[in-house]
Amino acid sequence: MNFYFNRISDRHHFDLWYILEAVAFNGLEIIIFYLNYSFICPKTLPGKKWNWLITGQLFLIFLFPALRYLFEEVIIFKITGYHNYAEDSLQTSFYIYDNSYFAIRIILYSLVFYFLKTIWNSNQKMNELLLEKKQAELQNLKNQLSPHFLFNTLNSFYADLMDVHPKTADDLLKLSDMLRYVTYENENDKVYLKDEIKFLQNYITLFSRRFDNQLAVQFEFSFHEDKIKIPSLLLIHFVENAFKHGIVTKADKPIKIELKATKNQLNFMVANYLINSENYDEKGIGNKNVRKRLDILFGENYVLDVKKTQELYQVELHIPL
Q1: Of 233, 239, 251, whose CA–CA distance to 205 is shortest?
Q2: Residue 53 belongs to what domain range?
Q3: pTM
Q4: 213 and 183 together in one domain
Q5: Which secondary-structure segment (H or E) carries 260?
């Protein structure tokens, strides 16, 4: 590195220049590091936005010499009278070229640290997910009181009622299917979307019995193939909340449930009109648990959008498939 000093005999100014130059250079490296580590990488790498990532890295390579020139050759020079580079080395092309080494070095450091952090967080989330799964399995075993006996008993009731009370028998069969789904499918990480939809349909049907089949619900769904899988029992929470806190029997204010699965994404929406006396706390334990589960399963690759007005409550969930 070339140095050019206007007043080499002034030791005080030289010491001041040396301190300011060291602070400015190290501070600049910290700025570039955290711009890449905390802003550019999180905004581009999780979504595989390679073009934006490359653009961001090039921007930092040019930003480094620009800020360094401002700090060292303008501000510090006015304070101390010393240049860091000789005047014939301050040409733009040479200055950018000479500083590209420092810029690329700190950019690579930030990329390495970001990847290490990502790997660490992924391992932590995986461990948390495995631990929660084991805990859920243990709790599930504790709560199961001979499920085969329970299902066999329900099937016997269904057979007895099928001829006498066919509608009650049909509801009992739906209840048996729901219990079997919760008991066995919940043990799997993922289930078929068509089975999850059937579970929601059965839940809606049985819930409508409480209101003499006057439940005002619009459930629309579409998906392109039967082999789509999603995390088990992920959607029922939002439907339960709508029934618990919403108006359920007014035809002009129905609960709306929409589900659409494309090739790469599942879009799920639940909207309901609120009961005037209802205090709907979207930050309740149930919602916190759902968000925590979504964080573990999808990291930052999902959207859970909650919109609330005085009359309407709407939840939109978008997850990758």
Answers
A1: 239
A2: 4-134
A3: 0.51
A4: no
A5: strand 255-261
Residue 144: left if φ>0, alpha if ψ -120 to 50, beta else—which one?
Answer: beta
The answer on 201 and 172 residing in a single domain is no
pLDDT tens digits for range 243-292? 888 888 888 889 999 999 988 899 999 999 988 755 544 555 567 788 88
CA distance 171 to 205: 8
Alpha helices in the chain (DSSP H): 11-35, 41-44, 50-68, 77-80, 92-143, 147-161, 166-184, 193-208, 236-245, 285-298
Structure tokens at 311: 């009359």
In the chain, what percentage of residues exceed pLDDT 90?
15
- What's the pLDDT at 10? 55
**230, 243 Cβ separation under 8 angstroms:** no
Q: Please, are residues 313 and 280 in contact by the beta-carbon 8 Å criterion?
A: yes
Exposure string (b/e) for 276-291, b if CB count within 10 Å is 16 or more?
eeeeeeeeeeebeebe
Residues 14-33 have a mean pLDDT of 83
Same domain, 211 and 314: yes
What the block records as the tokens of 28 is: 């600049």
Same domain? For 309 and 199 the reply is yes
Same domain, 303 and 217: yes
Q: Which residue has the tokens 């700190």?
A: 106
- Do 197 and 308 sit in the same domain of this protein? yes
Q: Is the pLDDT score of 119 beyond 70?
A: yes
